[in-house]
Amino acid sequence: MNKKTSTVTIQDKNEMVGFIRSLGTECRFVSMVTETPVKMRKTGNPFASGVIKLSRRNGLININYVEAVKRNLAEANDGNKVEYIPGETWYTHAQTDDGKALPLCVHKKDTKKHYLQYFPHQTLGRNEYFFNGVKMTPEQVAVMKTFVQEDNRADFKPTVITLGIDSIRVLKARRVQMNNSLVSRITNRLAGFKNVPANIEENKPAIAA
Q1: Domain extent at residue 81
Q2: Stated pTM of the model
Q3: Higher confidence at residue 200 or residue 166?
Q4: How far apart are CA 41 and CA 39, in angstroms?
């Protein structure tokens, strides 16, 4: 295993986009410090004007989502192969010169918007929440979470997050070597991510990590 680690602190969006392109198509662990808006119901919500979540999290990039779904469906059907046709997405993957998909994604309707697609593994430490730039108390967080939309993802679909580049404050990447069974266990793990929306398109960080 190559233990070399690269660390980038965002100076501007172009630097982060270039760094993600440089990661190529290898399966890697990534760890991040992120600032993301919390997706919530608005009606009756005292925090409806917006909550920002500060997280330290890790996960994998360059996992084949479609193949992961097929493996899960086969396991649920006594090993029999099941046909799976992926639906349309609001983004496209950037590609290498020879046509291989990168973890860097681009919004179909606005090519200036870039995203990192990754499979979450776990939250590192405790998440912190900020409302109007002020850190929320545990009591406020408890109330806020009652307005968070439930995860309605099908069980056979692994959690995958398409995260706006502007939401990433720090990104570390490490090369890994893993067999398929380990990849399956990690991509299906939901620790700390039950209430994270699959697609995060709003990128309005309000606090400094």
Answers
A1: 5-200
A2: 0.74
A3: 166
A4: 7
